[in-house]
Write a structure and sequence with these properties.
binds 5'-O-[(R)-(carboxyoxy)(hydroxy)phosphoryl]adenosine, 5-stranded mixed sheet, binds zinc ion, alpha/beta, Nucleotidyltransferase, domain 5, 11 helices, single chain, 18% strand
Length: 358
Amino acid sequence: MADTVTAVRPEVRREPVGDWDEDTLVLGIETSCDETSAAVVKGGREILSNVIASQTDLHGEYGGVVPEIAARAHVEALTPAIAQALRDAEVTFWDLDAVAATLGPGLIGALLVGVAEAKAIAAVLEVPFVGVNHLEGHIYSNLLVHPEATFPAVALIISGGHTMVVDVADHGKYSLLGQTIDDAAGEAFDKVARFLGLGYPGGPEIDRLSLLGDAQAVAFPRAMADRPGFDVSYSGLKTAVINHVRSLEAAGRPVPVEDIAASFQQAVVDTQVAKTMAAVEHVGARRLLLCGGVAANSGLRSGLQRACEERGVALFVPPMSLCTDNAAMIAACGTAMLRRGLTTSLEASPDPNLPLAL
Ligand code: KG4
Ligand code: ZN
């Protein structure tokens, strides 16, 4: 028999486990929803590579993510994405010090693909595996690009699956200040876009149309405005948009899509800016970290920028490529966990409802 299965490992071994410094190389893997992503991050801050294979084309015709299609697409895309991430970073598997993957929350079939591959790589390399909370990962997207983005801070995590305002006292120390009581903001964007026939994902298209429309054209409701606390609600807003369009159609009047998109977006921005800034003031935070897919929204960015400037609060926003799901943020968060001595057992399973450790 040819000796094909032996002598794969090189002689040189990495630093002992626990020696996490500026040179630590972590492979990040993200497969919680509809982006297959692999990244190599150095020292928790420097992105050496960040490969993102989006599946949105596969889900577009269904108007939303189809879990089974997502899981199968991750199976096909993940190994090539990891190989590409290593090539882009000009490193090999044997240079890696740890492997971090999203453990949850997310779609269980999708999560399983990333976690299984991450654990297999970690086991073969004999390096630690770190299971990362996807929401915590989003917070770290800011730390990858802004050296001054440090804790304590308030984080607004706003995406297709979540809308949360979190007080971050330090790495791993979170307390929830407010969240949506029904639909996530991105979910509302996607549902309204779908109703208006704008395709999936709807956020970017509504954002684009908003620039062409009149944000004052329709006075959509600002839910929870008169309630204390920092929770928001977007389900009623979505229904108000649908009812408005139906009444125009019933009256045989034209539907000004740009004006409706702009008025809807303004209602989301007004609501979220008011509640977020109230939370920032409540805890006396000097920094606000915006993250998650909806952080790409131009109206939300400018609304928060204005509100933060008025109050002397530093606003940090990741570049567009780090707003939506990506593995660099998972590797960065995983590195911070390693620094705190946290690793995850190879027996751990992904959890579709994994809570942020509050
Ligand atoms: O963080 P993400 O990639 O995935 C989740 O974890 O949900 O966020 C995706 C969400 C989608 O709902 C998408 O419509 C929304 O982010 N999104 C936007 C914009 N770009 C993406 N929403 C509003 N305006 C945008 N420019
Ligand atoms: Zn996300």
